[in-house]
Sequence to fold (646 residues):
Amino acid sequence: MWRDHLTEIIIFTLLFLLVSGMGFVAARWRAPKDINHLDEWGLGGRSFGGWITWFLVGGDLYTAYTFVAVPALLFGAGAAGFFAVPYTIIIYPLVFLVLVRLWSVSHRHGFVTPADFVRKRFDSPTLALIIAITGIVATMPYIALQLVGIEAVLKTMGVSGESAIARHLPIIIAFAILAAYTYQSGLRAPALIAFVKDSLIYVVILVAIVYLPYKLGGWGSIFDAADAKFDASPSPNDGITLNANNQLQYITLALGSALALFLYPHSLTGVLASRSRDVIKRNMSALPAYSLLLGLIALLGYAAIAAGVTPLPGATEGTVDNNTVVPLLFEQQFPSWFAGIAFAAIGIGALVPAAIMSIAAANLFTRNIYKEYLRKDATAAQEANVSKITSLVVKIGAVACIVFLDPQFSIDLQLIGGVIILQTLPAVALGLYTRWFHRGALVAGWVAGMGLGMWMLYQIPNPATKRAHFGGSAFPLEKLGFDGSTKTIYVGLVAVAVNLLVAAIVTLILRAAKVAEGVDGTTQDDYFADEGDPRLVPDPRESTEGESAEGEAAGESVEPAPKV
Amino acid sequence: MSESETPAAPAGEVVSRARAKDHSPWNWLLFLPIVVPLITPLFNADSPRLFGFPVFYWLQLAFILLGVGTTTVVYQMTKKRG
Fold:
């Protein structure tokens, strides 16, 4: 019953209201001359410095779902769930090498989305449309999953009702508030809220990793308890270390997830919102602090084993919801006021990425569908307006997913999301280095990669949840023709390899057939442009007067600003 | 890297110098934190334990320092000097 959790609910609500207020005030924070410009609303004026970028990107990549689901994985399967740590180590050098180029070319050309870049680079609105739709489809279930994170907390606090609507009412209210301040403040809202969210998470986790071992007899005995549990379980693939079967899966999943994460539109939004190449590069040395945090949070899954936590029942009869183990652990081991803070940290943790993701999806729709196909002469103010409205639609869609569909459906879609977003790798990430691929071949590779990825995911059963299809992302090598092999591999990486192969072969064919390749709208130098270098699109901070002032502002912006 | 930068330098010159730095050999160092965390035989064991953590966990957490160290070194060695 919720009455037993009154303290927790009060603290949760107070902190939630605090950040909601901040979300609305954010519109005036680092006030733009005109928020009705997509660069302002959707990218915070492309002006964020080191600290803001650190909180924003950290709050963006490490979502509430991550904080709930990764420990749940360790709780359920052991070492295999720890892939989140190598995955979030690998991502930063990749960003350092690759995404700074995207930042530069976007700075020069005023790109807001990865599809903007692809359109200019490969001179192909069709390819850009495919990239945009892939991004939107991959992002939507990710937003819905943030709700799963909040729900795990609400469930633990006993906030639940009989009917579907009553049970989801708190989430609907939370998302309505989130939608309202995102609409008003754009990217500034999650950037400001991220300060509170991350501070709460850091405090909660630092306390937890000192206090829990003290109560549970030290880390040594926590690991021993986990070891004993996995030894006793009938499943061959769990344990506190990997076995011969799942090492390949571990490696490919870590690498594939890192490649997918930096292709997700919301990560790119965080990167493009920063002020300069320097800000990004310096952040790549500072962001791993979050990886340490994630690693420690992951180990709370073992602490839950040692503390004897039993997860709450799942949505369907006879299943358990492992996502509740971390909230339950806090509830059982800590005084209720501290549990309330922890729950608020997870709850608010869901709002920051949900806001950024909806902004990223909205920008994709506006730039690559609305402006490209529906209204070619849209002004900057119209673009911003369409994006604002789309961000509302995206959030309503995410809530509807959770209220009307089985949450498992969102989890499945998220799993698919990682595989499909990887299929944009040849066009977006390799496109930053080379224009060797033919635009038609990139489309063909995308089709092949998507098809194969979907087929492989469909083939994977999950014995734990008794599902025949979409049961996970570990594909048995045996089905690929390696007879007798018991090893598994991450679907996404296989699919993107096939994608690349097809793209390469078709490129050779199309080139031999002399099919038109279009004109590359970027130059070599664009990939190294930095803060203060001339832009081809005027800076909205200098020109906010609309079309009439554009010529004048363009003249101004050619002058290189003094460097620090 | 020995060239000094003046704010008045023409845009083209600034850009070409930026390119030279972008292609610095220091960047190769970044492959270390991309590859090492993926070599599971390095760390897939229980002992030796450190503060109760099996090597599988403490060594992977230590790789975070490898990531921080290499990105910091590469940033410092390739950044523009004002």
